[in-house]
Specification:
There is one protein chain. The chain is of the alpha/beta class. Helix content is 32%, strand content 18%.
Length: 798
C-alpha cells in the first residue's frame, strides 16, 4: 500500500503469481524491497519478473489476493506448494497467556507465522478452503483481522477463536466424549477439559492426545509404574520414548544442553532433540529410554501441547499413538477403536488431520543439527539440487526432467525432483507394515499422475527383495516410465554429496545394518569404503565378511551375529571363556544346530555389515541377545561407551589383506578383556575407538593414493553420536575433511535423495577396472602393504 501499486496476487500450485501495475520506479522499489521485507517463515525463491506495456493506472491503489484452482492432494506424500507446520510463535504465545486477550487459553491459536499447514492441507495451493478448516466459518472479529492489511493475521488461512474455531472433547474410558457446552465463549470449557486430562495424567493414567500429525500417547514421565504400564500395553518393551517439556529448564538438570542444542530445541519445527544425559545414565527417568545415552526432548509443537504441558507442570512421555508396528492414528473414532486397551482417555478435537506426520528427530553434531527422522515441521519443504562442475545441464533440461525416487524399505521416505529442487516425503515407516505399503503405492501413483507426464524417471534400490524395488518395477511395466536402479550404499554416499554439494573425488564410508551389494560371495554389505570419481565408483575396502546364521533372524538376534563371528574366528575363539554371554544365550542343542548350519553354509549368508558387528559385540558384552526394536544393540553399546572415559584405549581393527578390515583381532582383545573382568563400559568405549581409528587410518592411506581429501560418513551406524563425533575428530586430525547427513537423514530415510542425485545430477556411474595394485594401500603403523578388493561395481541401470 505504501507504494500505491494495484493488481492481484494469486497463490497458484507451486508458486505465487503477482500482477502489479504502477509507476516504474515504484515497481522497481517493490522488487528491491521484497527480498528484505518478506515476513518469516516465508522463503523467497528467485524472482522471474516480466515487464508488460504500461496501461492506465488504477485510481484506487488496491491489491486483490486470490487463490488458484484446487488440486486435490489425496495421500499427499509431497506437496511442492505447501509449507511445513510451525509451532506457536512468540506473539501467539503472549496472547495465549494474556487473560485480557480474546484468544486467552485458545488451544488452536495461529497467525501468518505459525500454525498447521501441511498436516491440514486437502488440496494445493494453500487456502482455507483447501484445508480441513474449510467448514469453520470465521466470526466477524476473525474476518475483520483476516481482511485488515495492517493486522498480523491478514490473510492468515488458519485463524480462528473460541467463538468460531475447532473445539476440544474428552473421552474417559468407555464413557461418551465430553464436549464443551454450546455457546460462546468456550475457553472455560477447554480449560476444564485440559485440567481434567492433567488430573488423569497425575493419577498415572495414559491419555491419547490428538496432536498435529496424529495421536500421541502421554503419561507422567516421572511415574515409573505408569511408564511401564504404557510399555506393556503398547508392546514396546525397550525402545526409547520422547519427553515433552514446557521449558528447557525443566530438563537441564538431567541433560547437557549447549547453545546449539537449545537453538535446535526452540526451532519452529519443534523437533525431538536427542540430548546427552548427565551421569549416571539411569538416575533420571530410567524407564523412558533404558540404556540410552540420550533423552529425546521436545517443546510444545502446538498451542494445545503448550496449554497441557504447562497445566501439568512437569515432563510427560509423548510417544506415537499406535501399537508397535502399526501406523499412526489420525481420526478420533479410529484412535478410540485402535488404542482401546492402551489409552485410558482421549483428548480430541474436531479439526481433521489430513495426513499422518511423525515428529522430526535430530541430534546436534559439531554445532549443527543432524536429522535422524525428517517429518513434521520439516516436510514438505524443498531442498536444492546442486550442480556439479563439468556436468551442468541446461536450464531447460532441468525443468523438463522429473524424477520419482522410492528410497528404501526401512524408514521409507520417497522423493520428487523437479528442475533444480527435490522434495523428500516425510518419514512413512517400515514397508513391512501393510498400510505403509499402501500409502507408498498410492502416494507414488499420485505423484506420477500430477507430475509424471511422459518423461518421468522412476528410481529404486537395487535390492530385488525390497518392496519399493518391486513397486517401481510394477509401475514401469504398466506405464511409460523409464526405471533405474541405484546400489544401496552408493545412494547413501551420494545423498551426503548432494546435500553438501560435493564434487568428485570423494571417499565414502558407508556403515549400516544391511544393503544389497555386488559381491557374489558376500552380497550383504554394510561396512564399505567407496571411492567416487568423476568417471565412476568402486569399493576400496570393506569389513571382513562373517556368517549370519538364520539370515533374517540374525537381524533381530545379536547372539546369532556373535555366534557367526566366533565360529568364523575358529574353535579357540569359539571356546574362549570371554564368550560366555553369547554361548549362554543358546541351549546346547540350539548352538549345535546353528554351528552345523554355519559350517555347511545353510541359511547363513556372509555379510560385511558394521551394524551386525555392533550387534555381535553387544551380545558378547551381555548387553543384548534378542532385540525388541531395530538398532537396540548398537544403542545399548553406545550407552555403555558413554559411561567410560573417551581415552579408554582402542581395540585393533587392521587391514591385513584383500581390502578387508579384520575384526578378529578386535574380537580376541575384547574376549580377553571380558575374561579379565574389564568393565563393560570400557570394552564398549574401546570398540568405538577402534572403529574410529580404523576409519582414520584407512581414509588417510586411501587419500594419499586417490587424491581425495573429502570423506563422507553415511549410513545408519553414524547415527551413533560417539562413533560419528570420534570419527570426525580422527579424520580432521589426519588432515581430511569429513561430511555427514545434516538436513537429510544419513540413514535409509535419505536414500531417495542419493537415488535422485545418481540419475539426475551426479557423475557417470560406470564399472571400474583400474583398481590399485597390492602396494598402493598402506595403513600407517602396520608392517605390510594391504591390497584392495578387485571388485568392480555394477553400473546403474545395468
Amino acid at each position: 500500500m505504501a507504494l500505491e501499486l494495484a493488481g492481484e496476487v494469486e497463490n497458484v500450485r507451486g508458486s505465487v503469481r503477482i500482477d502489479l501495475e504502477g509507476e516504474r520506479d515504484r515497481l522497481e522499489s517493490f522488487l528491491e524491497r521484497l527480498p528484505r521485507e518478506i515476513p518469516p517463515p516465508a522463503q523467497l525463491e528467485p524472482l522471474e519478473p516480466c515487464w508488460l506495456p504500461p496501461t492506465a493506472i488504477t485510481p484506487a491503489a488496491t491489491v486483490r489476493i486470490a487463490a488458484g484452482a484446487a488440486t486435490p492432494l489425496g495421500i499427499g506424500l509431497v506437496a511442492p506448494s505447501l509449507a511445513a507446520d510451525r509451532a506457536p510463535c512468540a506473539a501467539c504465545l503472549a496472547e495465549l497467556s494474556d487473560p485480557a486477550d480474546r484468544r486467552f487459553g485458545y488451544a488452536f491459536i495461529s497467525c501468518c507465522s505459525c500454525g498447521p499447514r501441511f498436516s491440514i492441507a486437502t488440496a494445493e495451493p494453500f487456502a482455507r478452503a483447501h484445508t480441513s478448516l474449510a467448514s469453520f466459518v470465521l466470526c466477524p472479529s476473525c474476518q475483520h483481522e483476516f481482511n485488515d492489511p495492517h493486522n498480523r493475521r491478514f490473510h492468515a488461512e488458519t485463524i480462528g477463536c473460541p467463538a468460531c474455531g475447532p473445539r476440544l472433547s474428552l473421552r474417559i474410558g468407555t464413557q461418551a466424549a465430553q464436549p464443551p457446552t454450546s455457546g460462546s465463549p468456550r475457553r472455560e470449557d477447554s480449560a476444564t477439559l485440559i485440567q481434567r486430562a492433567c488430573e488423569l495424567l497425575g493419577d498415572g493414567r495414559i491419555v491419547a492426545l490428538q496432536g498435529i500429525g496424529g495421536f500421541q500417547l502421554l503419561v507422567d514421565a516421572g511415574n515409573a509404574a505408569a511408564v511401564a504400564r504404557l510399555r506393556r500395553r503398547k508392546q514396546r518393551p525397550a525402545k526409547p520414548f520422547a519427553l515433552l517439556v514446557g521449558d528447557p529448564a525443566w530438563i537441564s538438570a538431567h541433560c547437557l544442553l549447549d547453545a546449539d542444542e537449545l537453538e535446535a530445541l526452540q526451532h519452529p519445527a519443534a523437533p525431538i532433540v536427542l540430548l546427552r544425559r548427565r551421569a549416571p545414565v539411569a538416575e533420571y527417568f530410567p524407564a523412558v529410554a533404558p540404556g540410552s545415552p540420550a533423552l529425546g526432548v521436545m517443546l510444545p509443537a502446538s498451542p494445545l501441547h503448550h496449554l497441557l504441558i504447562h497445566a501439568f507442570g512437569r515432563p510427560l512421555v509423548a510417544t506415537s499413538g499406535n501399537r508397535s508396528g502399526e501406523t499412526l492414528c489420525t481420526d478420533p473414532d479410529e484412535a478410540i477403536e485402535r488404542l482401546a486397551g492402551i489409552a485410558d482417555a482421549w483428548l480430541c478435537h474436531d479439526r481433521p488431520i489430513a495426513r499422518p506426520l511423525d515428529d522430526s528427530l535430530l541430534q546436534v553434531i559439531d554445532g549443527r543439527p543432524a536429522l535422524i527422522r525428517r517429518a513434521r515441521g520439516m516436510a514438505p519443504e524443498a531442498l536444492p539440487l546442486p550442480t556439479v562442475p563439468g556436468a551442468e545441464a541446461t536450464t531447460s533440461e532441468l525443468a523438463q526432467q522429473v524424477v520419482v525416487a522410492l528410497g528404501g524399505d526401512l524408514k521409507s521416505a520417497p522423493a520428487l525432483a523437479i528442475g533444480s529442487r527435490v522434495w523428500l516425503a516425510p518419514h512413512l515407516g517400515d514397508l513391512a507394515e501393510g498400510s505403509c505399503q499402501q500409502r507408498l503405492a498410492e502416494g507414488v501413483a499420485e505423484l506420477l499422475e500430477h507430475h509424471g507426464g511422459d518423461g518421468a524417471l522412476l528410481v529404486s534400490d537395487a535390492h530385488p527383495g525390497y518392496l519399493s524395488h518391486q513397486l517401481s518395477h510394477q509401475l514401469a511395466a504398466t506405464q511409460p516410465f523409464e526405471h533405474r536402479e541405484v546400489p544401496h550404499h552408493l545412494a547413501h554416499a551420494l545423498a551426503v554429496m548432494a546435500e553438501h554439494r560435493l564434487a568428485a573425488p570423494v571417499l565414502a564410508f558407508c556403515f549400516d545394518g544391511l544393503g544389497y551389494g555386488s559381491d557374489p560371495v558376500a552380497p550383504l554389505w554394510g561396512g564399505e569404503l567407496l571411492q567416487i570419481d568423476s568417471d565412476g565408483w568402486r569399493r576400496l575396502a570393506s569389513l571382513r565378511p562373517f556368517p549370519l546364521p538364520g539370515a533374517g533372524r540374525a537381524m533381530a538376534e545379536p547372539r546369532r551375529a556373535a555366534l557367526g563371528l566366533l565360529a568364523a574366528a575358529g574353535s579357540a575363539v569359539l571356546q574362549h571363556p570371554g564368550a560366555r554371554h553369547t554361548l549362554a544365550a543358546f541351549s546346547q542343542d540350539e548352538r549345535h544346530l546353528l554351528l552345523q548350519a554355519i559350517a555347511s553354509r545353510c541359511n547363513s549368508p556372509l555379510s560385511s555389515s558394521v551394524g551386525r558387528l555392533f550387534d555381535a559385540v553387544a551380545s558378547l558384552l551381555g548387553l543384548a541377545q534378542v532385540l525388541s526394536h531395530e538398532g537396540q544393540g548398537g544403542l545399548l553399546l553406545e550407552g555403555a561407551a558413554a559411561q567410560a572415559p573417551a581415552d579408554s584405549g582402542a581395540y585393533p581393527l587392521p587391514l591385513p589383506a584383500m581390502g578387508r578390515l579384520d575384526w578378529q583381532p578386535l574380537i580376541e582383545a575384547l574376549l580377553a578383556d571380558q575374561n579379565a573382568g574389564v568393565p563393560t563400559a570400557v570394552c564398549a568405549a574401546r570398540f568405538h575407538n577402534g572403529l574410529s581409528q580404523a576409519i582414520q587410518a584407512l581414509a588417510v592411506s586411501a587419500a594419499r593414493h586417490t587424491g581425495a581429501a573429502r570423506v563422507v560418513l553415511a549410513g545408519g551406524c553414524f547415527q551413533n553420536r560417539i562413533l560419528l563425533e570420534r570419527s570426525i575428530r580422527a579424520l580432521r586430525a589426519g588432515g581430511l575433511t569429513p561430511f555427514w547427513g545434516e538436513r537429510v537423514p544419513g540413514n535409509d530415510g535419505g536414500l531417495a535423495l542419493g537415488q535422485v542425485w545418481a540419475v539426475r545430477r551426479s557423475l557417470p556411474i560406470n564399472q571400474r577396472e583400474d583398481l590399485p595394485s597390492q602396494s598402493q594401500l598402506h595403513v600407517p603403523g602396520r608392517s605390510r602393504s594391504h591390497p584392495l578388493d578387485h571388485e568392480p561395481a555394477t553400473a546403474i541401470g545395468a
